Amino acid sequence: MLVHQADFTVDLGESGYLIGFTEYDDYPDEMPYGWRCGPAGESSAVVLPTTDSGPLQLTIQIHDSQPAPEVNGAWEPAEEISLRTESESLHLAILDPGEVSDAWPEDQPPFPLETLLGQGRWVRLRLYCHADDPEPGIGDHGERHLIQLWPAPATAPVHPALSEEDRRARAEYAANTSSPMVDYTVDLPLPS
Question: What is the pTM of this model?
């Protein structure tokens, strides 16, 4: 049964958003290219929208048990992952190049999470996505996401199969993030 729902608009950055049960202050080690969402750690997920730097209508629902699938045909196939609850609040952050910034709306109170946290330390996240304009790009694509959360033991994720292009993009991202940072600092002598 639906316990709580919030609807709001988020202004996206170039790299999507993070949602989960831990404050996240850095980019994830892996990006889920080929999927809409993937783990950014045990307690949070990274979501890759169609919209690049534009508005996204986000609906987040808390359920006390697994909700029935949305079958109205307005959504892409759902994806699911399990998240471990490390904190007693739900966090939302926007990923911009070189920056992760809090995105929870100031006018939206924190979620009441007793339903999720009282039954164990694992929560199931189901993500539905829709974009009026499915071509990636900047601006308003009429994109909306529905995130459903409910208490459930950790189980295998549900995602579409990956293409070779997706595998290459993942490998390239991993190579770029594992490379050491180039130090461009210069020591200048102080005038005497």
Answer: 0.84
Rounded CA-CA distance 62/60 in Å is 7
Residues 189 and 70: their CA atoms lie apart, in Å, by: 65
pLDDT tens-digit series, residues 4-31: 999 999 998 888 999 998 876 667 777 8
Write out pLDDT tens, residues 140-151: 889 999 999 999
Q: Are 37 and 125 in contact (CB under 8 A)?
A: yes
State how far the Cα of 45 lies from the Cα of 18, in Å rounded to an integer: 6
Residues 170, 133, 135: CA angle, nearest 5 degrees: 35
Which residue, among 144, 147, 127, has the nearest Cα to 62 in the 3D structure? 147
Which residues are CB-neighbours of 47 under 8 A, at least 6 positions away? 16, 17, 18, 19, 36, 37, 127, 145
CB 9 within 8 A of CB 57: yes
Q: Is the dihedral of CA 57, 25, 36, 132 positive or negative?
A: positive
Q: Are 18 and 41 in contact (CB under 8 A)?
A: no
Structure tokens belonging to residue 137: 């790009």
